[in-house]
Amino acid sequence: MITRILIVALYIAACLRLRAKPWLYFQLNAEHFNKAKGIFSKLDIDQLIPARWRLDQFRDSGSEQPTHYPVFIKPEWGQNSAGIVRADNLEQLQEHRKGRDLSAMPFLVQESATENCEFEIYVIRDEENEHQFSLMSITETVNHSDDEFPINGIYNNNTSYRDLNDLISDETRQKIWSHIKQINNFRVARFGMRANSIEEVATGKFHIIEINLFLPMPLYLETAGLTSTDKLRFLLKNAHLLAKVTRSIPKYHKSKSVFFRKLYVHRTTSQSSRTESVDRQKGVAL
């Protein structure tokens, strides 16, 4: 929580120093915000990913079945692995479907990636050159359980993050960037990938698990052994570069009500899910 507060506070301070407008933060990737749904739709973003890096997924209406297992069932919006569950067979998938309202919060079913390693790549686009990055932070996600298909995240006690930044050359970063920018030149994003090594990511042999566009957190800040000095140095750099790319948003940019629209949808679907849960409990009691 303290880290998140620092990210926001330092960003606002950097914006004021650079004469950027901090309230435009939610416009950084607004062109990818689905106004009708009120979310950064994972299905929409999925269509931006070239087929060779894309995992098959579909909106779970309850009628379509996966071709193979395991699969991951995840909310169409959300981040940090919140709400994700795994189904190893049809019975588990059907059990999960019974436990939720298919008409309320939309869920997706995504195939599992077969690669051995997981990486998180956080990128801020350059202020002046949209075809280049100003910051790329690369971490490896490590799971300490025996689970072959774990659900990693900052709230999973078996998950830790390993800093790879000092191990990766500028040449390798540029190779990775050459792939990432084929997806889209997001102003800020975090890419979750599965690959057998970071070298294979550089050669384009990977699958995208997820792309976070709404408040993406650089997972470098969660790496083990990070000193307070290193964390503060990164936070200051991150805030400065975010403020610069915020300043680059065109004056003619048509704003979208991203924050309040997303907040409304979140509250509406959460209330609907709670009501459905209460109704099911009453039905069981009767």
TrEMBL record:
Keywords: ATP-binding, Nucleotide-binding
PROSITE patterns the record matches: ATP_GRASP
The keyword Magnesium belongs to this UniProt entry's keyword annotation: no
GO MF term (any one): catalytic activity
InterPro entries to which the protein is assigned, alphabetical: ATP-grasp (IPR011761), ATP_grasp_subdomain_1 (IPR013815)
Source superkingdom: Bacteria
Protein name: ATP-grasp domain-containing protein
The organism's taxonomic lineage, starting at the top: Bacteria, Pseudomonadati, Pseudomonadota, Gammaproteobacteria, Oceanospirillales
